[in-house]
Each structure stands twice: as C-alpha cells, then as structure tokens.
Protein: Cobalt transport protein
Organism: Methanocella conradii
Amino acid sequence: MRVKYQEGNSALHRLDPVAKLVALSAFSVCIFLFDSLAFEALSLAAILLAAHLIKAGPAISIVRSRYALTLTIWLVVIQAISRVDCLVVSMEGRAFGYRPRRTFLHMKKPTFADMSIIATSIAITAFLFLDRWAGWIPLPRLRV
C-alpha cells in the first residue's frame, strides 16, 4: 500500500494547514502526557471515528498503511541526517511540484473552523497540563 496525498473535499481537506499542525501537536502532547490506558483507548477511538467521518476509508486501511508510513518516515529521517548540508527547499521549487496548488503560495484567510480548532487544541492541552500539575481529575496510571 502506498502512502500518498488523497485529494478530497472533506472538512479536513478544507482546514488551514496551520490548524491541522496545531491540532496534531496538541493531540501528540496529550497522548504522551498521561499513562492512562482508558485515555489512550479513547484517543484511538477518536482517531478511528474521525477517519471514518472524513471518509478516509475503512479503519483497517489506516492500520495497514501504518507500516508503510513508518518505513517511509525512517528512511526520510536517515537520508536527511546523512545529507544535512544539502537540504534546500525553496518556494519556487515547490511551485513546480506534482500539485502546485497545494503549496503555501496560495495563502487563505483562516476561517472560524480553523480558529476554533486551534483554540480548542490549545485549551485542551493547557487544561491537561494544569490537571497533571494540580491533580484535579485522578486518572488511573499504568506505572508509578
């Protein structure tokens, strides 16, 4: 199975890339912040539900593509580390790619959905950090 860009007109495709990056970063921090099996199971269920809602295909295709994605990421990281001095990305080079309309040359104004996703992601992450510090909601821990 190949990991590649899939064109579409879903809510996820219409979001600003910055909003997607902020939500992904906040989600990643939240996953590694707690050692709760229930929290991790809820997170996995949320990912699979979101994939189903945006019509990304059946959940099994996401699981199958995980192996190809992991291999691709490791190969890119190894190649980038071995050739650090020759990595150059220019906006002119990106404009002549396979799909030039996907570049940041076409800036769009953030919508209400973009701003609400960014604000919600930041608020949830901040709440979880404060909860971890203050201990408001006792979550079961896997290890002490």
Q: What stands out?
A: Residues 16-58+89-134 form one domain. The chain has six helices and no strands. The mean pLDDT is 69.
